Automatic annotation (TrEMBL):
Listed SUPFAM superfamilies: Metallo-hydrolase/oxidoreductase
Top-rank taxon, per record: Bacteria
PANTHER family in the cross-refs: QUORUM-QUENCHING LACTONASE YTNP-RELATED, QUORUM-QUENCHING LACTONASE YTNP-RELATED-RELATED
Organism: Micromonospora zhanjiangensis
Boundaries of every Metallo-beta-lactamase domain copy: 101-310
Family under the similarity heading: Belongs to the metallo-beta-lactamase superfamily.
Entry keyword set: Hydrolase, Metal-binding, Zinc
Protein name: MBL fold metallo-hydrolase
SMART domains given in the database record: Lactamase_B
Gene3D superfamilies according to UniProt: Ribonuclease Z/Hydroxyacylglutathione hydrolase-like (3.60.15.10)
Length: 321
């Protein structure tokens, strides 16, 4: 599957999203897209437990990136690539290519309700359509995992790029998860508005209209607030800016166990083996580098598991930088 003929940067993608919306089929909970998984044999689902929480990987799409890996990560050395290849061999395609998955995660809480972290590339006609392998398969994956979309009461968007917000609202502007608040950093929304991004009209305004937009500033406990939390654990968003101004990660913690859903804090294993390696499409590579180094150092101290959006495996150990 190809990302299309032209190398379209994410910045350009954000600006182009305003053109979308009219005349595209609405996809909602009651529509056919949600029924795709019904009647299918459930497939094995990768998950990790952290105390009372289960973190479930939901694979939305896969494909080759639209440019070579050296072009995407210009500072990476041969030694960096060799170490990265040992860690995530599936990411290495022919001709210096980069194969990546597009993944979301659901965090099942003891109440049986879920936090969904990111919503993938989305349906045909979603903002990622110009470069990502749409349609994604998140609705089928939720069905296979036995997750009723009505039980998702919180959606965390790590950041507002097309490949992370795709199933948040339909192209007609209806929130896909009707019972959920959508947690976005205030800095992310402010930057989109300042840039005149089309994703304000596509995503932010529909969520504001229905009262489902939940803006947060900085580190914010979503569940289990307090030292131990009601169930002895916590789900917390952490600001990890750089990839975008309001990028956030999600920490799931219980006792001494930690799992971090990292969004695009790192997009390739080469940034895990060497956190100083920048990614061409980071909004601010120096800020991104500092966020990556700080989070990976902290995660390494706690022997945390990382749940990444784009590596070819859903869960990897945090390596000490
Ligand atoms: Zn991404």
């Amino acid at each position: 599957m190809s990302f299309g003929q032209h190398p379209i940067g994410r910045r350009k993608l954000l600006m182009g999203a305003a053109a979308l919306g009219a005349g595209v089929t609405q996809i909602g909970r009651g529509d056919a897209a949600w029924a795709v998984g019904a009647g299918r044999r459930p497939t094995a689902t990768a998950s990790r437990s952290v105390g009372p929480y289960d973190v479930i990987a939901l694979y939305d799409a896969t494909g080759p990136f639209f440019t070579t890996r050296q072009d995407a990560f210009p500072a990476a050395t041969d030694a960096d690539w060799q170490r990265a290849r040992r860690l995530d061999p599936g990411a290495f395609g022919p001709d210096d290519g980069w194969n990546l998955d597009f993944r979301c995660y659901a965090v099942r809480r003891p109440t049986g309700r879920y936090v969904l972290v990111d919503t993938g590339v989305g349906p045909a006609g979603s903002p990622a359509s110009s470069w990502a392998p749409v349609p994604g398969h998140l609705p089928e994956r939720l069905a296979e995992a036995g997750i009723d979309p009505a039980d998702i009461d919180t959606v965390v968007l790590t950041h507002v790029h097309g490949d992370h917000i795709g199933w948040s609202v339909t192209p007609a502007g209806v929130p896909v998860f009707g019972n959920a608040r959508y947690v976005v950093q205030h800095a992310e929304i402010a930057a989109l508005e300042a840039a005149g991004s089309g994703l304000v009209a596509y995503l932010i305004e529909p969520l504001r209209r229905t009262g489902q937009l939940h803006e947060v500033t900085g580190r914010t406990a979503l569940f289990g607030a307090g030292p131990a939390g009601r169930y002895g654990g916590q789900v917390t968003v952490l600001p990890t800016p750089g990839h975008t101004p309001g990028h956030q990660s999600v920490l799931v913690a219980h006792d001494r166990r930690q799992l971090v859903v990292t969004g695009d804090l790192l997009v390739h294993a080469v940034q895990l083996v060497n956190p100083d390696v920048g990614y061409r499409y980071e909004d601010d590579q120096e800020v991104a580098r500092r966020s990556r180094r700080a989070l990976l150092a902290e995660a390494g101290e706690h022997s945390a598991v990382l749940a990444t959006a784009h590596l070819k495996q859903p869960f990897v150990a945090a390596h000490r930088p």
